[in-house]
Amino acid sequence: MRLTLQMLISHGRVARKMGLGPESRLNMLRNILTGLVKHERIETTLGRADEVRFYAEKLIDYAKKGDTDTKAMKMANFWLTVLLYHRFFLLVSLSYSDPVPSTLFCFCLPDFYEYSWFFGSSSYFLFSLWFQEKDLIPKLFKVLAPRFEAQPKGYTRMARIPNRENLDKAAMAVLEYKGNPFPPLQPAKRENELTLINQLLKGYREEQAQQAAAMVESQ
Amino acid sequence: MAVCTRRLDKVMCSIRLLRNVKHQNERFLSTSLCRLALESDGGNPTTFTPPSKPVIIDKTQTEASLRKFLSPEFIPPRQRTNPLKFTIERKDMIQRRKVLNIPEFYAGSILAATMADPHATGKVNRFVGICIQRGGHGLGATFVLRNIISGQGVEICYELYNPRLQKLEVLKLEKRLDSNLMYLRDALPEYSTVDPDMKPVPHSVTGEVPVNTTRVRMRPKPWSKRWERPKYAVKGIRFDLYLTPEKMEHAQKWAQPWLEYDMLKEYDTTELEKRIFAEVQAEMTK
């Protein structure tokens, strides 16, 4: 590969590096976006929330086109998928030479897309299993798209929360779709009624109301 | 140069003769002398040059039926630069287009470009070739013409807005299956040879541009680039003659199927194109 200066300089690059590479980044974002569509409010690290925000809004834009649009359907099918990695059970099953218990398979219905690398003599398989969240696609088109019909953009809200308690102390953020059924993240501040100006204004409003009532009575 | 002086001498002689004859006896002036004078010009009889054909501008074609074409260099790339830069550049591009007619063409069309060159005989250089690539944005827009001249493949990259470019003619307007025909370098020479004295093929101003669906035959491998890889997305090569299905599958390992779903990579230019097209049309008709 030709090592160019352009590779070292990152001016104008909008996509953050996440995970193991571009494919891994997109897979991670896919998982987070599926979670967001499912729960409408999720908590992740700051960087991931910021990346997903763009994709969340674009997904709503596609959903607004309607489920008859082929491109919109393809996008929804791709993005509303959850990726699960299972290394452990395979290792276990091969060493015990028992048939794999059905319980392990029951919760993941394979749309079995790919199996990756087989490491030589060792019985260590890296499988990537996908399952499509079939009920999220109608939710996207029937619930979320009509909710944001009037708005041209700005369907999501992001708020920072205290850092994670783990050793990494990662900066966390909450990402939500506006109009969700949960209580608001930042409760609406009501002004203090007992300040001087507010009391005077209250008195003025009451006086105006009394005068208006007197006028109506006299007529 | 010597020939010219010799011819000039002869002409001078003949003129002097004529003048003398005229002075002496006008009656002896005959067509034979004229013929002599003509023949002394070089020995060739003058050929009949027909008058130039009139250019017919068909005013019956309405604007609606004409093909809407916006040259790709007008569409600004996705950048963080000030849009003012693009408006100023567009103004300059339109000013140049008012002087020189830059026609509509695509990769795969056959063009003839005449460039001013101080070292060439006649001060102009004419090159005919097939356009393999259109690149660049704004005033730096380029196109590469390829032709094979006496067995040697030649590619020249011209800038559309270079002031040295005198004339740009489209000899054959057509599209190909790909927008980048760099693979012609590894194709058999018959696909890149263009007759330098080719006559322009008439094309219609309305309707769709004809698509040439030829699938090219290649020289034996190794090629300059691995054209079978999905990154190049080449449709115009007959891979079945050179690669086994296993090799084609192996090439698909470099496919990035997630790329088409990555919304970050999308750049929707429809609104921008409409606006710029209206602007350019208005300016050109002024």
UniProtKB/TrEMBL annotation, chain A:
One of its GO terms (cellular component) is mitochondrial large ribosomal subunit. The keyword Membrane applies. InterPro entries: Ribosomal_bL17 (IPR000456), Ribosomal_bL17_sf (IPR036373). GO terms for biological process: translation. The keyword Transferase does not apply. SUPFAM superfamilies: Prokaryotic ribosomal protein L17. The chain crosses the membrane at residues 75-95, 115-132. Gene3D superfamilies: Ribosomal protein L17. Keywords: Membrane, Ribonucleoprotein, Ribosomal protein, Transmembrane, Transmembrane helix. GO terms for molecular function: structural constituent of ribosome. Belongs to the bacterial ribosomal protein bL17 family. This is Large ribosomal subunit protein bL17m. It comes from Esox lucius (Northern pike). The lineage of its organism: Eukaryota, Metazoa, Chordata, Craniata, Vertebrata.
Automatic annotation (TrEMBL), chain B:
One of its GO terms (biological process) is translation. GO terms for molecular function: structural constituent of ribosome. GO terms for cellular component: mitochondrial large ribosomal subunit. SUPFAM superfamilies: Translation proteins SH3-like domain. It is found in: Mitochondrion. Pfam families: Ribosomal_L19. Keywords: Mitochondrion, Ribonucleoprotein, Ribosomal protein, Transit peptide. PANTHER family: LARGE RIBOSOMAL SUBUNIT PROTEIN BL19M, RIBOSOMAL PROTEIN L19. Belongs to the bacterial ribosomal protein bL19 family. This is Large ribosomal subunit protein bL19m. It comes from Esox lucius.
